[in-house]
DNA sequence: TCGGGTATGGAAAACGTTTTCCAGACCTTA
DNA sequence: TAAGGTCTGGAAAACGTTTTCCATACCCGA
């Protein structure tokens, strides 16, 4: 690959001049010279080596994303949102799988530091333990977190408590009194907050919190399926279930059907996230929509602000929105979204 | 951040010695000295700067992945498979969105070249046009492609033709004669091959190819939904549909239900890929499974082989497997998988 | 005591850029 | 014509490593 010295030699100038031309430096260079250099650059297809450039400038235009698992559609959407903004801002993105484990987080951060990543976006899993916290702090002024965390980094999050409460209120409004909850068991603030929202809404409506109706899931369809099965088999069973994400809700619906319950008549189910497939499910899933891509995008915008030293808000909370579909009500569009539908 | 000179000064040695110690160089260094250096390394939490290292060694332990869109679960699984292998082999991964467009591909490759990525894995979209081909060729010996492409790079792929044929034969075996097909319209070899497999199987079974029963989709649920609608509305309609991926199959099933057809009784549907959710759908989706993560993993293994100069097979085709579920047959497990089930 | 090997460590070049001086040529003005 | 400014360009340092030589000290056998 051509390097700057090749260009300089061929154009009969010094590397200084070449550098000035390709970087549009304010230092003046004669138009004729500039043209000569540019034509050689084109001819040799020269691109400055980013390693050398980054080494000198202490800036790589690269950021790292720390997520537990890209095959979870939630994180895939987050990443997509981040990339959309990153591309425009000229940043490349390197992906780090943490599996949600501290060890993975630590390894990833060290790696990003070695590679001189300009910044880091952290999403999923929990930040805990002295080591994690201390090496993360070392990156101060370069980290944005997604979700609520016990750290003082700039953060983007959804209103998880509010969203869960919305879901519960919707069910109560439909007459449900026994409402189950399938949550996360990873100790993340996300699962915590959604559970809290559920409890709050129950309390505010004078309904008791019944521990028997709460199950710990692990965010995937299978665990939703298994947890719903145990919720439904007893004599005393909930008539509705709020699931902490859509994937588990899909599993729960499958379990309900297998147990002979029809949804929503015998069991209403509400999901969380509004992943792309949720409206195609049968029945279409009532869910608490959170603007996943927007959250990703906002986190990247925040990081760009952070890195460029410009002003920006250090905390952004996105509201959630309950999308009522048929997993809780038949013909919801008639009752809610579209009053003009013939009746 | 501590650098090698800091360590050297504090340990009273030259940077040469420090470098030797941290890289376990074969050049001998006195055990006492080594210990002294290592303790300073720990104390200062020194990690060698990867930019400087990469600049000198012409090796960055970084590879790039080119995909159209990470929010498509198929690509998410591919990436996951790649990462699993990359992590073990010590490689970092940078993600490039191409949107399936040549312009995006070109931009991405230039970027990876600038950043001195050691290699590239290309998946999705088509390689076409002189420019793309020529810059890709420049990276020769560093590229692995996923899918069949008109280039001579090492490649990993699934048996798309065979898989589509399997699906069609299954439907014919169930008595279907009018079988529709919803394919891709992006000109990719994947959509081409799946269509070809469909046609071949029809021909081999003496069934006519009916252009009216073929629709171009764009891989997402919505297009499956729309295309199925047009397939089903005429008087002359297929009794079964093969969809070129699961996402479109989901959409097709929704369309069928809305049109008043029950699946599989009135319309049988077969998908392709076996994405994680397909067994949770209602009805559970009969689909041609392809081992997506394995394909990703194999491509990375191939790339590692390529980069390390060791021997490896330059072409790997994964077989597909038809998973019969209820979108084509009621109680398939009784008829196929598990004859011991009480009847 | 000498010759030659081994053990250990360092100096300096090289990787490919950007940027800070510095310098010469030319022009303008008095 | 001299003084000073404006254009234009280059030399060299710096970024943080690895690696190739080279150098010294020590030891061993003869």
Based on the model shown, name its key terms.
alpha/beta, 434 Repressor (Amino-terminal Domain), Rossmann fold, six-stranded parallel β-sheet, six-stranded mixed β-sheet, elongated, disordered C terminus, DNA-binding
Describe what this molecule looks like in 3D:
Two copies of one chain form a homodimer. Chain A is α/β, with parallel strands linked by helices. Chain A has three domains: 4-48, Orthogonal Bundle (434 Repressor (Amino-terminal Domain)), CATH 1.10.260; 60-157 and 294-318, Response regulator (Rossmann fold); 160-290 and 322-337, Rossmann fold (3-Layer(aba) Sandwich). Helices cover 45% and strands 16% of the residues of chain A. The first copy, chain A, is built from 13 helices and twelve strands. Chain A has helices at 4-11, 15-22, 31-44, 50-57, 73-89, 102-114, 130-138, 160-173, 189-204, 221-233, 246-258, 292-308, 332-337, and strands at residues 62-67, 92-97, 119-123, 143-146, 155-158, 179-184, 214-217, 240-243, 268-273, 286-289, 315-318, 321-323. The first copy, chain A, has a six-stranded parallel sheet. In chain A, β8 (240-243), α11 and β9 form a beta-alpha-beta unit. In chain A, α1 (4-11) crosses α2 (15-22), α1 crosses α3 (31-44) and α10 packs across α11. The longest helix of chain A has 17 residues, at 73-89. Chain A is elongated, with a radius of gyration of 26 Å. Mean pLDDT of chain A is 92; it is low at 334-343. Chains A and B meet through α4, α5, β2, α6 and α11 of A and α4, α5, β2, α6 and α11 of B. β2 (92-97) of chain A pairs antiparallel with β2 of chain B. Chain A binds a DNA duplex (30 and 30 nucleotides) through residues 3-5, 13-17, 19-20, 23, 25, 27-30, 33, 48-58.
